[in-house]
Structure prediction request, 323 residues.
Amino acid sequence: MPSLMDLPLEIRLMIFKETINGRRTPPMPPSKSHRGEITYWQDRDSCHRHKLCHEVSDSSNSLPLLLISRQASVETQSILNRMKKTTYVLDLSILNEEKMFTTWILVPRLTTRLSALHIDVRLFGHMFTSNDVQERRARRYRGNNGLSRFFYEFLERSLLYGTLDKKGSSGISLEDRVITVENLVLDFRSAETKLPFPPSDMDYSDWMKKDFGNSRFSNEQVDEDEALKYTTRPEWPLCTWSTWLRGMTIMRNINEMYGGLIYERIGTISMLVNGGLETTVDLTGELAKVHVYSPLDTWVETTLVGREAHGFPFVQPQDLDRG
Prediction:
């Protein structure tokens, strides 16, 4: 039987390129099958130790080609050397506004410098119910802010360790790979096929009030039935997540511990709905404002130098003052 290496070089290179840039099919619907559970915030307040994210980690598309044979490795490496930009694509599915499922869809090669990290945030299932809210209160966290936190924990892990393998997801300490992303893109969309969006008389404020335990209806059963009948509009979690990310970049008190990595490792953040731009997180302007907090002066100077070295947009604090 003819082997791959018996094909003409031109055809082999075409096959290798297609393999390197090939996208996996995201799961439909999300499932716990063949996934590892991740406990986030495990080193912080114990009330956040909940396994709400199920992860599939994988190697790069190019790794199997590099291992076929010496000749295939050389030819694959020649293709990788000519790649000017590297984009990773992650599928982040959310089920019933409660659980997150992450699957790497495109990882052409392992690298510490990404041109873009594109995250498809797909919403499945129904809206959260009154029972969900009560359980969240018992666990002492709010659902949508909780998912924002879990997302940030996943993002933080990705910036530190890349596409984790199973050892990484088991909690074993790994070395920081110092991964940078020029453009982080989050694209929110509904993937629910059976449930409609809520009626027009229910808006974002109603959704948020319910998250605080304030139902639209005095009858709890009516409220429960409504939640099970509809799926969430993608604009609503986008608004919550963007607010959370902006809060993380203010760099006060506890945020100082977390938001710093965003400035150090990410150039720009864009947030989309169904592929259309909704908002951006202004890292350039916010970083220039951080200098007013004197304990962070040295960190700001170091971070500005780092952003310039990575080719990220930046503004010196004095330039912002003159503007």
User: Anything to note?
Assistant: Confidence is low (pLDDT under 50) at residues 38-52, 165-171. The longest strand covers residues 113-124. The first helix runs from residue 9 to 20.
